[in-house]
Amino acid sequence: MIKIQRIAAPAELTPQVVADKTALYIADPTKSVWKEPYIEQRLIAMTHGKCCYCECELGKESNYMEVEHFHHKDKYKNEVVIWDNLLPACRSCNGNKGAHDTITDPIVNPTVDDPKVHLGFRAFRYKWKTGVGKETVVSLDLNDTEKRCKPRFSVCNELVSKVEDFLEAIQSVTPVSRTQEKNRMRNKVRELLEACQCDREYTAMKATTIVNNEDYTSLVLEMKTRGLWTQDLDDLDAKMRSYALDML
Ligand SMILES: [Zn+2]
After folding, report:
1. How far, in Å, CA of 225 to CA of 247, rounded?
2. What value does the mean pLDDT take over residues 68-72?
3. Hey, where are the domains in the chain?
4. Which residues have C-beta under 5 Å from ligand 1, the single-atom ion?
5. Distance 148 CA to ligand 1 centre (A)
6. What angle do CA 70, 196, 68 make, to 5 degrees?
7. Which H/E stretch holds residue 40?
8. How confident is residue 78, by pLDDT bands cut at 50, 70 and 90?
9. Phi/psi zone of residue 155: left (φ > 0), alpha (ψ -120 to 50 degrees), beta?
10. Which whole number is the average pLDDT over 60-64?
11. Average pLDDT value for residue range 158-172
12. Is 107 helix (H, G, I), strand (E, B) or coil?
């Protein structure tokens, strides 16, 4: 989970539309008044197509996108189409959270709270630093082995394997190596860092894994020694570090 910058509400969601939809929902709670392509598309744009909680890619495999009401719509009907209450979530997160009352038992709202304050990782599992963090992990069931941990492990393991390969490959890059060879190395590392940015799935876990990986530290040193570490790589590295959670 990473901090998400909330973007402006869709233009179609005017105060009048909000009032009309809210009145309709209060009169008949079976009406899915939030189900509008303009709402869903704006929410998807806000998180780069990811679930706001578990960071899986929405629309991939069985990770269907659902409009999540942070304050549940059954109890807080007046917020059923309030933009700040809407988040994009996968079916698992939305389903696990169910009617959880986030007013009486708060969980991390990634558009408001910094997940780093409440959450960390250990062995591909979410750990908590605070009561809110624990409530988040438990109510969303973020450590389900099959649905959550295995996919996270798989993408992180792939990255770690690449780092190992790059660290070996860089040994053959010398000052007299061809420019093409140096560029190839730089491009590979750039792709690795791009995979750990906020527009990719499982950013927090990938960033945490790489910044704590000793081979990656060695790789950066080797790149610097050979004059291959450029400003754009440095910028990507810094951004990646900003998404990493603490290892607990
Ligand atoms: Zn999710």
Report:
1. 28
2. 98
3. 15-104, 145-242
4. 51, 53-54, 90, 93
5. 9
6. 15
7. helix 37-46
8. very high
9. alpha
10. 82
11. 97
12. coil
**Structural contact between residues 62 and 91, judged by C-beta atoms closer than 8 angstroms:** yes
- Cα 204 to averaged position of ligand 1 atoms, centre (Å): 13
pLDDT for res 60: 85
List strand residue ranges (DSSP E) for 30-97, in order: 65-69, 86-90
Tokens representing residue 162 in the block:
């690449």
* For residue 62, pLDDT beyond 80: no
Could you tell me the distance, in angstroms and rounded to a whole number, from the CA of residue 209 to the centre of ligand 1?
A: 20
Q: Are 207 and 190 in contact (CB under 8 A)?
A: no
Sorted by sequence, the CB contacts under 8 Å of residue 72 that are 6+ apart come out as: 98, 99, 100, 101, 102
Q: Is 192 exposed, middle or buried (0-12, 13-18, 19+ CB in 10 A)?
A: buried
pLDDT tens digits, residue range 200-242? 999 999 999 999 999 999 999 999 999 999 999 999 999 999 9
pTM for the full predicted model? 0.96
Distance from Cα 140 to the centre of ligand 1, integer Å: 8
